[in-house]
Amino acid sequence: MELNVLNIEGKETGRKVSLDASVFAIEPNTHVIYLDVKQHLANKRQGTHKSKERAEIVGSTRKIKKQKGTGTARAGSIKNPLFRGGGRVFGPTPRDYSQKVNKKVKRLARKSALSIKAKENQITVVEDIQLDAPKTKGYLNMLAALGLSDKKSVLVLGEQNKNVYLSSRNLKQSKVVINSELNTYAILNAQNLIFSESAIAGLETLLNR
Questions:
Q1: CA 104 to the chain's CA centroid
Q2: 49 confidence band (pLDDT: 50, 70, 90)
Q3: Sheet of strand 192-196, all strands in order from the earlier edge strand to the far edge
Q4: What Cα–Cα distance (Å) separates residue 126 from each residue in 7, 106, 142, 208?
Q5: Which of 38, 73, 186, 208 is the most buried (most CB within 10 A)?
Q6: What are the residue ranges of helices labelled H in the chain?
Q7: Burial letters for 86-114: b for 16+ Cβ neighbours within 10 Å, e otherwise?
Q8: pLDDT given at position 60
Q9: What's the pLDDT tens digit per position in 56-72?
Q10: Three-state DSSP class for 77?
């Protein structure tokens, strides 16, 4: 599969990039995609939730009313979960939500996600971007020229570029990563992937190890 390389003005440069079929044209495995996305979202959870149980509530241990003769159920502690301000029964406690997924499974998941995007023509290749200064307006102009200003996009670079990153940082629907940081969730969550020309070869090398 070949794609035309565009410049930041959205015009063809006359060059083409050939996408490796072993990365961008495999039969997608939906189960490994599910496993990888589930792990990614689980690992983002802080797990710091906590509520106090009965033993952790600060309060008097005095019996709050006599055992019999009140016409209501017996009660021995103000910390009873049935009372307002009492402890919670089996409440949440801090825990680690992180999961493990094998490297080969994650690699296959990324290949499957990229193949889905390639099949749906949601991949754009641009020449290596060079911005003189971090300007959000310049980045927005590039997205508009590519016809992606109203779409959620991920720009994949071959190496760190501070000016490009800072130019896109405050845009809600745009994200900039380098090829080694690209994950399955980011691929599928974007409506369109934008690859810099130098990022393609590096990504194919990473996924074909």
A1: 19
A2: very high
A3: 12-18, 2-6, 123-126, 192-196, 153-157, 174-178
A4: 5, 26, 10, 23
A5: 186
A6: 21-24, 30-43, 103-119, 136-145, 162-168, 184-189, 197-207
A7: bbeeeeeeeeeeeeebeeebbbbbbbbbb
A8: 87
A9: 999 888 999 999 999 99
A10: coil
Q: How far are the Cα atoms of 76, 94, 182 from residue 79, in angstroms, in the given order?
A: 9, 22, 50
Residue 209 pLDDT > 80: no
Cβ-based neighbours of 133, under 8 Å, separated by 6 or more: 163
Nearest to 114 by CA among 32, 180, 183: 183
Locus of tokens 């190890």:
209
In sequence order, what are the residues at sequence separation of 6 or more whose Cβ sits closer than 8 angstroms to the Cβ of residue 163?
A: 131, 132, 133, 134
Amino acid at 99: Q
Question: Token match 């307006």: residue?
Answer: 137
Region class of 101: left (phi > 0), else alpha (psi between -120 and 50), else beta: beta
Query: What type of residue sits at position 148?
Result: L
Q: 110 in helix, strand or coil?
A: helix
Measure the CA–CA gap between 54 and 51, rounded to whole angstroms.
10
DSSP 8-state code for residue 21: H
CATH superfamily of 2-45+100-207: Ribosomal protein L4/L1 (3.40.1370.10)
Q: How far apart are CA 126 and CA 48, in angstroms?
A: 42
Asked if 7 contacts 13 with a C-beta cutoff of 8 angstroms, the reply is yes
| Whether 140 contacts 109, CB under 8 Å | no
Distance CA 7, CA 128 (A): 8
Q: How many CB atoms lie within 10 A of CB 12?
A: 10
